[in-house]
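sorry to bug you again but im stuck and you know this stuff better than me. what follows is a protein written twice so to speak, once as letters and once as structure tokens for the fold. mainly i need to know what kind of three dimensional shape the backbone takes. anything you notice is useful, everything is just below:
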Amino acid sequence: MKFQRQNLILKLIEDHPIETQKELSDRLRAAGFDVTQATVSRDIKELRIIKVLDQTGKYRYATASGDVVGDTTSRFRNIFRESVVNVDYAGNLLVIKTLPGVANASAIAVEAMNMNHVVGSLAGDDTIFFVIRDQERAAQLCEEIKKMLK
């Protein structure tokens, strides 16, 4: 449940200008998660979520960037390791199967690695498709990910 909840938190703060823990808690409850303020607070800390000033002059939750990216990346990598079920490729497409509900967080983990041969990604509930520049690099990335999971 933790990984699904944290994945949803990341999606919510990306899609909505959430200003408070209460607002985040309410959205999580509406999605079926029975959370307390303490749980949301721990999740925010673990995911290294920060408040930033947006274009409208209001503060909102966002994933950290800049000098705290390393910590955030390691958190996403932990989520990735715990949630990936299978990795394979076909042509220049890399396909990653995850536990239900954590594909978005897993995709963020791979994207945070800043690999320039990844053209883009598409994450559903439990599957991620990565478009890789060519088949050779797709095979290499598939093997790198498999090693990372061990």
Observations:
- Strands lie at 49-53, 59-63, 84-90, 93-98, 118-123, 127-132.
- The CA atoms of residues 13 and 61 lie 6 Å apart.
